[in-house]
Amino acid sequence: MVSLSIQNIRKSFGSTEVLKGISIDVEPGEFLVLVGPSGCGKSTLLNLIAGLEKITSGEIYIGNHLVNQVSPKDRDIAMVFQSYALYPNMKVRKNISFGLETRKIPKSEIEKTVQKVANMLQIEDLLDRKPAQLSGGQRQRVAMGRALARSPSVFLFDEPLSNLDAKLRVEMRTEIKLLHQRIATTIVYVTHDQIEAMTLADRIAIMKDGIVQQLDTPRNVYENPVNLFVAGFIGSHSMNVVPVRVAKSGQKNCLLMKTNEKTFTIPVDRNRSLLNKWIDRELILGFRPEQISDGFPNQAGNDQIHTIESKVEVIEPTGPDTLVFIRINDKKVACRVHPNAARRPGETMKLMLDLSAAIFFDPDTEEQIS
Amino acid sequence: MNDPMFHTAPKTAGVIAGRVFIHGLLILMVLYFLLPFIVMVLTSLKTMADIRTGNLISWPREFTLDAWRTAWGSACIAVECNGIKVYFWNSVKIVVPAVTISTLIGAANGYVFSKWKFWGSEVLFSLLLLGCFIPFQAILLPMAQTLGKLGLSQSLAGLILVHIIYGLAFTTLFFRNYYVTIPDELVKAARIDGAGFFRIFWKILLPVSTPIFVVCVIWQTTQIWNDFLFGVVFSAGGNQPITVALNNLVNTSTGTKAYNVDMAAAIIAAMPTLLVYIVAGKYFVRGLTAGSVKG
Hints:
By secondary structure, chain A is α+β, with helices and mostly antiparallel strands.
């Protein structure tokens, strides 16, 4: 049973192909986030699901129905837009009920639905206002209310929080998540903000150039990115990617690293058979800023953790911890350290590199080596 | 501008002198621009004897509305001596339907060209815009032939049709450019809400179109009311609009020229467009700039 099935969708505008064969199955009640840089085709894909644009080839199923030829109003979907798209001439009440009225639902029932939705979103006292009299956050609520009133089988969100200021965005993010937990309806949510994607999604589809790069849980896309693009896109600050040469030292595979202090030969136990193919060649090592720090709990005796020394180039305090930037093999590396442990720029600092979660990328294909 | 410092800045003699100079200059300019109109009004209120003995801007020795009455009801135009009232109402009969229809069609066109683009719609729109740049004279002959074939030669209906067609290029442009500034997402939301082509037009777009309607109505009313060329070519006798009648009135010479009657008739002819602009002028400016600033 799937709630929404996208099968090998392609979309061209004239001679430019913006979607190059997308296939995604969404389970009932799942929160799917489409994320990617602008121009990756995520909004186009959402418009295709909504039926606002015609598919070039491929199939879309909502429930078990093929909806390629079905008009937007009959697809059993509701959509929330970035600009809210509230009807400016109608009061909030009318905005919410407009879709129900066009469907010729009895008046008493409409009235009940509007009350219920207004209650759920706490916008009861706004019902008789015009959209122009509302703040950004209130408009966003009304836009969600309009979508909720229809109780569709799939909700589509097109960058709904992008027009809000930073503080309100975080608040509304939590509200959307709460809302999803209450109504448990399938949601497809488009954003360019990877933090929104990470915090909201059950699964994330990371898109680039009209192709889904990786479709997985937030945790997996964070810990196990399939290629350099995903590694760089997800996470703030993004993953450190350092070109390293692999060398054989006795029985062990080693990675050669050079900071502006000295050279280190760091043994790796993991992925032995994998790395055997890369002896005396250069590959790309990926690790998160939190995997290189001033120290780890229980680090004694952990043979995956190694010491590195480097001159500090720049520091960026973030509050709970401080990002220290160093250079390994001439590549800038961010290290997340305790604020007290951070050295000043120009000083030398000793850092612990934890390779237990490190990943390796092929420098030519930029894919993860596995 | 709301900075209190701005308002309480000390007024030195230099500042005051500057202000006086600027305002004096402005008043002078206003008088210069208003002078022709003042002369018209004054002359229309004088008696002929007064006009003959006084000069152009002299104050009337006695005020009289006789010239106005004559112009409206009994001045001779060609062979008829019924004043310009018939022609005034002719113009009203032309302007009201021509403005209404061209504005409504323009709104519908603009809606399609902005929100329901189809293959080739941009080309079609560009072609339609050419209509704004075709001089009146260029279409006189083909239009006369067309009206002849339609059996509308020399009739009010024919003149109305000409004005509707000629106005469409402008009204379409106005509405299209206005609707382009209304987010497409609004139309998308309405489509998902189940509204169709006409429902979206009536319920979503028309209710927010007041500013551009005002612009369109003022523009079209002024254009059509003031038109002389189409009127003189495509209508005849009792069907002529007021602009043509005014010309005929002034050119009908029986004995002395009644300047006061001519002036009164000219003011009557200009009155409606002046009124429209005075009443709705602020909406006109607001509507013209509506697209450029986010409201």
